[in-house]
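ENTRY TYPE: paired fold submission
RECORD: A
CONTENT: sequence, then structure tokens
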Amino acid sequence: MDNFKIQENRGLVRILHGYYSLVSLFADPTSAEEGLNLSIEKWDFMLHYYENQKSYEMFKRLYDGRNKTCGLCRFHKNDCQKCMIFGKTGKTNCRATPYENYCTCYIEVRRPREDIFNYAKQELAFLKTFKEEIKK
């Protein structure tokens, strides 16, 4: 798989233990807005990948890289309490968000791919809700 398009190809997909793993090459964002934009671009890529996979086996092979590829986590140095998502949910590690459902769904064996896709789609939509808030 080629480099994925995340702000001028600042990320790769590598095969690791039989899975495609997102690997970030970008420097830590310098603002929450930049971190949010990187997170949105990551999930845009994830959805594009999922939309183009025909087999369940390939569909389940993309590992999202968790906090290592999250622009917001990188901006806040993994200090959840500084993050806008924590401000909205009051929970660390993106619990009480579509991402929590995505992770649960991803690790369950033979979970319908529509579920994984839908939670990824919901996570992208959730992140986009912060676009207006961040401009205030």
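RECORD: B
CONTENT: sequence, then structure tokens
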Amino acid sequence: MLRIRYTSPLDLDISGSAGELRGIAEGILAFLGSNRTGFALVAGAGYDPSPYRIAISGLLVVKGGGRLALTVEAESLLRIIGAPGSLEILADWFLFDEAAEPKEHRHFEYYEEHPFLAPYSLPLVICVD
């Protein structure tokens, strides 16, 4: 089950099987090749989000201009907006080998003078369950 979990202000996690995470990458890439302005995905529900505070129910990816930004809206939606090139880079971060071990993870976060991530963007941990 794909899980998006969050504790304000800076702890954001997307976890799932390698295949589920790959599905996010494939969805973003298909969206970028389309005329659509957004790509939505429903995450799992009814689970204990521990050690995080809340379970986020959905993901919305939007084409925009400028740097990539990840924000949580109303404690229920992870919104990702950015230029197509930046969204394509983000998609690559979700590509884990099918043989990836549980707990294998990546940190996608801002650092000073980051070339495509906005300074106010939430740091994200992408983890294989």
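NOTES ON RECORD B: Strands lie at 3-7, 11-16, 38-42, 54-56, 58-63, 69-73, 77-82, 105-108, 124-128. DSSP finds two helices and nine strands in the chain.
STATUS: closed
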